[in-house]
Amino acid sequence: MNNRHEMNTRPVLPCIYMPFPKNSLNMSCLVKIKPEYRKEFPEIMKAELSKYVNQATPTYIFSMKDDSGFYVSREQNIFKLTTIFSTISIIISLLGIYASVTLSTDRRKKEVAIRKINGATPATIVHMFCKSNLLQLFVSACIAFPILILLLKSWLESYAERISIGILPFILIFLLMAVIVAITIIWQLWRIARINPAEVIKSE
C-alpha cells in the first residue's frame, strides 16, 4: 500500500503496515471509515479508546490527508510567497515599461512634430516607435528567458515527479508585454498628436 507521507521532492516508496507488538509504548492504528462519518469519528474513537487506554496516555487522531499535509505545508507556504513576490515583480515591470515608453515619447516630441509637418502618417510614426521599443523588449526577453528556464529547470529537478517546461508560457508573457508596449505608445502618440506641431517645435 503506497501513500505519500513526505514532501513532493521525495518519491513515494512502497510501505507495509504491520501489527504493532504487544506492550509497545508507541502504537498506531489505521482505521478506514466512510466519508459521511469523518466529522464524528474522532469523538467515537476517543470514547472507545478510553475503555482500553489509560486516561494519562496521550492519544492523537488525524487523517492520512492531515498527515501528508503536515509535510507539504512548508512547500505550500513557499509557493504562496513566491506567487506574491512574482505578482509584485510583474506589476513593477509593467510600471517600468510604461515609464520607459512615456519618457521616450516625451523626449521625441519634436521629432514627432517635424515628421507630422513633413507629411508622416500616424501609422508611420507608431511603427517607428513600436519598432525600437519592441526590439528592446525582444533583446530583454532573449536574456531573461534562458536564465528563467535554467532556474525553473533546476527547481523542478528537485521533485520526484517532474514536468517539462513548455514554450507557450514564455510566448504569452512576451505577447502580453508587447501589447502593453504598443498600447502605451499609441496612447502617448495620440496625446502628442493633439498638440499643435508648431507649439511643440517652439517650446523645444
TrEMBL record:
All residue ranges annotated as the ABC3 transporter permease C-terminal domain in the record: 84-197
Membrane topology (UniProt): Multi-pass membrane protein
Presence of keyword Cell inner membrane: no
GO cellular component: plasma membrane
Family annotation (InterPro entries): ABC3_permease_C, Macrolide_Exporter_MacB
Principal location class: membrane
Alphabetic keyword roster: Cell membrane, Membrane, Transmembrane, Transmembrane helix
UniProt keyword annotation of Cell membrane present: yes
Top-rank lineage group of the source organism: Bacteria
Regions crossing the membrane: 78-101, 134-152, 164-190
Any GO MF annotation of the entry: transmembrane transporter activity
Localization of this protein: Cell membrane
Record protein name field: ABC transporter permease
Organism: Bacteroides fragilis
